[in-house]
Write a structure and sequence with these properties.
α1 (3-11) packs across α4 (71-82). The model is unreliable at 131-141 (pLDDT under 50). It contains six helices and no strands. It is mostly helical. Helices cover 67% and strands 0% of the residues.
């Protein structure tokens, strides 16, 4: 998985958690629906709870990596993770800084294979990661 997806996941975990909670609620309310059985809805809820557990473990792992970075480096990663464009469009110096910090992040994420299931699930639920651009500029660092 690309590091940008992991970084976006880290900075949009609250929105992702809220979306998963909403999916759980929707499935809980469908239990009374006769077109789908209660067992189907219960299985779906259990699956979503398991997904949340996997994402929680992955988020804690990435948070441990982020704690080892400076505030400036975390700001650069936040900018990169929430950007809707590639790094080629931000200028040479900024792109160089983003690459440096991204490589540093990647080197520290050596045990990522332990979270292979969470990374796989992130591929499925990535559309729910809505790390919107919060008006954060690299100049603000």
């Amino acid at each position: 998985m690309k590091s940008k997806r992991l970084i976006r996941f880290y900075f949009s975990a609250d929105e992702l958690n809220r979306a998963l909670d909403n999916l759980i609620t929707v499935n809980a309310l469908k239990i009374d629906d006769f077109s789908k059985g209660a067992e189907y809805c219960a299985e779906r809820i259990l699956k979503l709870i398991q997904v949340k557990r996997e994402f929680c473990a992955l988020w804690r792992y990435i948070d441990g990596i982020m704690e080892g970075l400076s505030a400036e480096e975390r700001g650069i990663l936040r900018f990169y993770g929430t950007a809707r464009c590639g790094i080629k469009s931000i200028g040479k110096e900024r792109a160089k800084e983003v690459k440096r910090v991204t490589v540093k992040f990647g080197r520290r994420a050596r045990r990522l294979e332990r979270y292979a299931e969470a990374v796989r699930l992130l591929g499925e639920y990535y559309c729910l990661c809505n790390a919107g651009y919060n008006g954060f500029f690299l100049e603000d660092m």
